[in-house]
């Protein structure tokens, strides 16, 4: 029997649980500016992310400007930073959920545009459901990533799972070609 996990109640709730690794493969992330200063990698780009729902997001920042922007925010605690994913290697990304109404097995909104997810979905998105959604996911996600997606959908019924799938294995866990950006029910 699958254990149902505590629902994700807000973006702030999600970001704390994301930092703890609850949702699987992720982008390396820093929860506070001092942690970021101690651990960032020179020559990499970063993404300043908001802990507020539908909040602003800043992509492709060098470490110095990323840190400065973070510190200049009125409430730096409402932000965190992730390493930029290899968007130029994106195969497929989007949002998937297993509706609790039982009318269809999966609902998938996706894009193949090679940009960060929010602008990519705004540029060109397609929606599929049921067996077509399963087919897309199985053909794009490596077996580890597909299996973990199933775990997330089982653990968090009625939640949306945001993901990006790459041509390469990338993220905090070895052997995954998919990063799970968000699990939300708010």
Structural features, described:
- It is a single chain.
- With 186 residues, the chain is α+β, with helices and mostly antiparallel strands.
- It is built from 6 helices and 9 strands; from the N terminus they run H-E-H-E-E-H-E-E-E-H-E-H-H-E-E.
- It has 2 domains: 29-83; 86-184.
- The chain has a 5-stranded antiparallel β-sheet, sandwiched between helices.
Record the SSE blueprint.
Blueprint: H1 11-19, E1 29-30, H2 33-39, E2 46-50, E3 58-61, H3 63-72, E4 79-83, E5 90-97, E6 107-111, H4 117-123, E7 126-129, H5 130-140, H6 143-155, E8 160-166, E9 178-184
Antiparallel strand pairs: 1-4, 2-3, 2-4, 5-6, 5-8, 6-7, 8-9
User: Biggest sheet, in brief?
Assistant: 5 strands, antiparallel
Q: Order of strands across the widest beta sheet?
A: 7-6-5-8-9
The class by helix and strand makeup works out as alpha+beta
Q: What's the shape?
A: globular
């Amino acid at each position: 029997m699958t254990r149902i996990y505590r629902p994700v109640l807000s973006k702030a709730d999600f970001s704390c649980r994301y930092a703890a690794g609850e949702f699987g493969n992720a982008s390396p992330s820093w929860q506070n500016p001092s942690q970021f200063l101690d651990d960032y990698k020179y020559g990499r780009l970063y993404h300043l992310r908001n802990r507020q729902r539908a909040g602003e997001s800043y992509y492709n920042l060098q470490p110095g400007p990323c840190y400065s922007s973070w510190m200049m925010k009125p409430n730096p605690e409402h932000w965190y930073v992730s390493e930029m994913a290899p968007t130029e290697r994106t195969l497929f990304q989007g949002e998937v959920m297993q509706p609790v109404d039982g009318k269809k097995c999966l609902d998938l909104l996706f894009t193949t545009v090679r940009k960060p997810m929010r602008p990519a979905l705004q540029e060109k998105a397609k929606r599929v459901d049921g067996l077509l959604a399963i087919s897309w996911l199985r053909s794009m996600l490596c077996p580890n990533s597909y299996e973990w997606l199933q775990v997330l959908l089982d653990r968090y019924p009625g939640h949306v799972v945001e993901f990006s799938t790459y041509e390469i294995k990338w993220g905090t866990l070895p052997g995954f070609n998919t990063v799970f950006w968000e699990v939300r029910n708010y």
